[in-house]
Write a structure and sequence with these properties.
Number of helices: 8
Structural class: mainly alpha
Helix content: 55-70%
Strand order of the largest sheet: 1-4-5
Radius of gyration: 19 Å
């Protein structure tokens, strides 16, 4: 049995606290930036893309702002609307956590579509590049949730349970680690295997986006059963979480992208 440190603060500068959540979240963004930039460089060298690194970095810069804003709005709207409607100033306090992946995903997809339409670039190409970097970034992103002691699992009477002191003294499922290994690492490994088998020309087919979408939505849907989160009545005999409902929608969108890629539909200007 393992117990986390009761403090989520990495260090302080005067009265300003730096949280592990912020450090790991920033690191996940850095990983995503590094991988996506190297993919663009490689595609340009091979002649499969004409997107300059300056253009791509500009796209990522505004995309980052959009992801943070929409992630926060997603958390507010999807998960704790009643709390934030009575404490609106707390919406701005993101240093302690509270970013919803699906909210950020929606914002990024809209931003990507609008950018591709303006620049006449393949939408599926950019989605593929972003999806493989997102999978890698999620590994440390979920570790941020773990050390921030949020999105904890249900009580688990096992020697392998983890105690989150800021929650209570009961051992729980370390669901954040499960998500890091599946939504992040597993999706990334499958994408790399697909790349090795099909080559760099496979970017722009939408397959990397489909792999990420299906692995993420499926694994999170299953892991949600072990999370200590509020469930919603769908029917008299079915209970689902908000996250599971969003994962179902994500799975459907992934199938639509697969259909687009199989029909060789390219969404451009």
């Amino acid at each position: 049995m393992f117990s986390l440190n009761a403090s989520t603060i990495a260090f302080s500068i005067g009265n300003f606290n730096i949280y592990w959540y912020g450090i790991l979240f920033a690191f996940s963004l850095l990983i995503g930036w590094y991988i996506s930039n190297n993919i663009v460089k490689r595609l340009n060298i091979l002649g499969y893309s004409k997107l300059s690194l300056n253009e791509f970095d500009s796209f990522l810069f505004f995309g980052l702002i959009i992801v943070i804003v929409f992630s926060r709005l997603g958390h507010v709207l999807f998960y704790e609307f009643q709390y934030y409607i009575h404490n609106p100033i707390e919406i701005l306090n993101i240093r302690k956590g509270g970013l919803a992946f699906h909210g950020g995903l929606i914002g990024l997809m809209v931003h990507t579509y609008m950018y591709c339409k303006k620049k006449n670039i393949s939408w599926l190409l950019l989605l593929d590049i972003l999806s493989i970097s997102a999978a890698a970034g999620l590994i440390t992103g979920r570790l941020a949730n773990f050390f921030n002691q949020e999105l904890v699992g249900k009580v688990w009477a096992s020697e392998y349970g983890v105690i989150f002191p800021l929650v209570d003294t009961f051992p729980r499922y370390p669901t954040q680690l499960y998500e890091a290994l599946t939504e992040g690492l597993l999706a990334f490994i499958i994408q790399v295997i697909y790349l090795n088998r099909n080559g760099w020309i496979s970017f722009g087919t939408g397959k990397y986006s489909v792999i990420f979408g299906i692995v993420y939505s499926t694994s999170r849907f299953i892991i949600e059963f072990y999370k200590d989160v509020e469930e919603i009545f769908i029917t008299n005999n079915l209970l689902l979480t908000v996250g599971q409902i969003l994962c179902i929608l994500m799975f459907i969108v992934s199938l639509i992208i697969y259909w687009l890629s199989s029909k060789k539909v390219t969404i451009t200007k």
